[in-house]
Amino acid sequence: MNRILFTFTLILLSFQGVLAQTKVSGKILDQKKQPLPGVNVFIKDTYDGASTGADGTFSFTAADTGDVIIVCSFIGFEQIEKKIKLTSIDFTFNTTMKESLNELKVVTISAGTIEASDEKKTTVLKPLDIVTTAGAQGDIVGALKTLPGAQQVGESEGLFVRGGDGSETKTIIDGMVVNKPFFSAAPDIASRGRFSPFLFKGTVFSTGGYSAQYGQGMSSVLALETQDLPAQTSSTLAISSVGIGGGYNKLWKEKNMSVGFDLNYANLLPYFKLVKQTPEYTRAPQFSGGSLNFRKKTSTTGMLKFYGYFNLSDLGIKTLSIDSTNGFKNLFELNNSDVYTNLTYKERLGEKLLMNIGASYSTNVDNIRTWTDSIRSQSDMTQGRIVFSRGIGKLSMLRIGAEYQYTYDDVKIDGAASGYGYHIRNTIYDNYSAQFVEADIYITQKLVWRAGARGEHSTLEKEYVISPRTSVAYKVGEKSQLSLAYGQFYQKPDRTYLFYPQIPGYNKATHYIANIQRVDDFHTLRAEIYYKKYDNLTNLNDSTNSGYGYAQGLDVFWRDKKTIKGVDYWISYTYLETKRKYQNYPKEVTPPFAAKHTASLVFKKFFEKLNLSSGFTYTYASGRPYYNPNNPEFMSDRTIDYHSLGINGAYLRQIKNCFAVLAFSVTNTIGNEQIFGYRYSYDGKQSAAITPPAKRFFFVGLFLSFGQNRSKEVIDNNN
């Protein structure tokens, strides 16, 4: 009897609990009456709340009844707090949010930095911009190469910016450094970035003068911020001419937690059967990998994120030996495994104090085999980072932080096949630590000054260096502003040189930048001049830091999304003059990765009635220097000019809860001859041009998204 009474009591209590809950739902709009996705809507001092979806709507269940405070919070908009009365009856709350002053009316630091976030006023590229840029092939770096400052280097991975080589650009995800952001590749063949653009909600592409929060990049920083909670549960499936893939993201009913994963496999053998490649592949490139993500809203202002990624790749290639007179071919086989993990947590500690804390681990292993050697190269990085941001007054901000990185690098060379039977192994460890402090001080709403400094120490370098950095920006009109920036940037020598018995010291660059820009909802115009002075560059002749150099030039960017209905286009131009004396250069010359003139035109047209998107990208770069041993004037020869026209198209269709995209793209459509440099034999009598593996790359793919209608996102992106 007691058990029956107890059970009945539980049922009654549960029933009463249900009765006490109230469903709260509604829609949040911006001042233009457009839905506002990603707004945090919650009952103050409770865990009851949700984020708005792509259509601006939200819904959650509140446990409290009576008078409560409902809060609407979103970065860049004025927070809304309103008293409402909840009963057991469903409650509807609709409202409009206004953009806050610090995003709309006041000046922002812009010298050297291109914001590519979907939350900032100075929007340049969104994830959809990246995947719909012809010629970029869905690669973040491929799309960034259409922006001013970036060079068109097709024979090596990396982002080459303003006279800097690829190692001078650092990739950051949620504040954590990515040790190997590009796929491993064969010599003279560029590889793409490892990460999908849809993983990120914001991209900051700094071409110089960047914040003291980041270091170890003498030229540029690519800072990426991952998405928060998804708008809803969804799954994806992709079938293309090079592989297959799929993923699933589950959003909890309470909309405070999500888990997702994706898997993919690509094999270029069928494609290579159809499209002839210049190199002889002994094993066609294969890639398999996947990722796992977890998001947990720990409070109304707290967010825990985990992202893990792994990839396996394999390829083999034979190329004609330039020193051979009997057709001998060199062998290069590569097997790579790469793992990257990233765990971050942010929380507001009081009204004006924000904490960001993170940890990351990555490991990359390349197993390389040639006719004579077997090489195993491993590179690991473990890191931790903490940053506190404190609001001062209404707009100013103080940031203090520290980070630590432990790196392990190991190279083993087994020359048993060479007949000499040598075995070489080199291992290095480094403990790198950094501290920084930086303040954005708003003197008026039209004038802001950023001042900061970063201290860095490496046990390998055995030296502590301090990098002062400062910027100032002044608003000269409602939509226009001027900016100046100065900063010093240190970087450890290239990984190869760290194995030398006498390790070279830090390399150094000093940036001077002046910028003017005008930005409104549909147009962006930027012009920037810069001077970059290189000191302490690595000199291989005596393993010292006696190298030096400079880079100076002009970057111009224009984007227009309004003049022609349904058309989005941008034009970028870069003028670069740079020289350096480093490595084993006998004198100061322009390095082989720098072109004096680079320009891009990106054009996109969306036919809304036909659900059809199309576009093209034309890129030009003047000839680059290369070394010709037969010319007594060092590095004075030039390649032919670079031309490339890429086209793409996509048909979009929504069928019930399935959003489908059928896409195609072609690079170098006209088939222009592209030469990135030359290789010479030891005696200088024979040479071979460095070219892409094929003149064109064709891609066809079908992408299906279930549970998430992206039609409006596509339309908004093209209007």
Tell me what you see in this structure.
- With 719 residues, the protein is mainly beta.
- 6% of the residues lie in helices and 54% in strands.
- It is built from six helices and 38 strands.
- The strands form six sheets. It has a 22-stranded antiparallel beta barrel.
- Strand 28 and strand 29 form a beta hairpin.
- The longest helix has 19 residues, at 2-20.
- The radius of gyration is 27 Å and the shape is globular.
- The N and C termini lie far apart (69 Å).
- The model is unreliable at 1-19 and 116-123 (pLDDT under 50).
Summary keywords:
single chain, 719 residues, mainly beta, 22-stranded antiparallel beta barrel, five-stranded mixed sheet, 6 helices, disordered N terminus
Please state the average pLDDT score. 87
Radius of gyration: 27 Å
- Kindly state the percentage of residues in helix: under 10%
Large-scale geometry: globular
Task: State the end-to-end CA separation.
Answer: 69 Å
Biggest sheet, open or closed, and with what strands and sense? Answer: 22 strands, antiparallel, barrel
* Residues in β-strands, percent: over 45%
Residue stretches low in confidence (pLDDT < 50, at least 5 long) are 1-19, 116-123
Write down how many β-strands occur, each being a DSSP E stretch of 2 or more residues: 38
Q: What is the count of helical runs?
A: 6
Structural class call reads mainly beta
What's the topology here?
Blueprint: H1 2-20, E1 22-29, E2 40-43, E3 49-51, E4 57-62, E5 66-73, E6 80-86, E7 91-96, H2 101-104, E8 113-115, H3 127-131, H4 140-144, E9 169-173, E10 176-177, E11 200-206, E12 220-226, E13 234-240, E14 243-251, E15 257-267, H5 269-274, E16 280-297, E17 303-320, E18 329-348, E19 353-369, E20 374-392, E21 396-414, E22 423-444, E23 447-458, E24 463-475, E25 480-491, E26 507-519, E27 523-539, E28 544-560, E29 567-581, E30 597-607, E31 612-621, E32 625-626, E33 637-638, E34 642-655, E35 658-666, E36 677-680, E37 687-690, E38 698-706, H6 711-717
Parallel strand pairs: 1-7, 9-12
Antiparallel strand pairs: 1-4, 2-3, 2-5, 5-6, 8-11, 9-10, 11-12, 13-14, 13-38, 14-15, 15-16, 16-17, 17-18, 18-19, 19-20, 20-21, 21-22, 22-23, 23-24, 24-25, 25-26, 26-27, 27-28, 28-29, 29-30, 30-31, 31-34, 32-33, 34-35, 35-38, 36-37
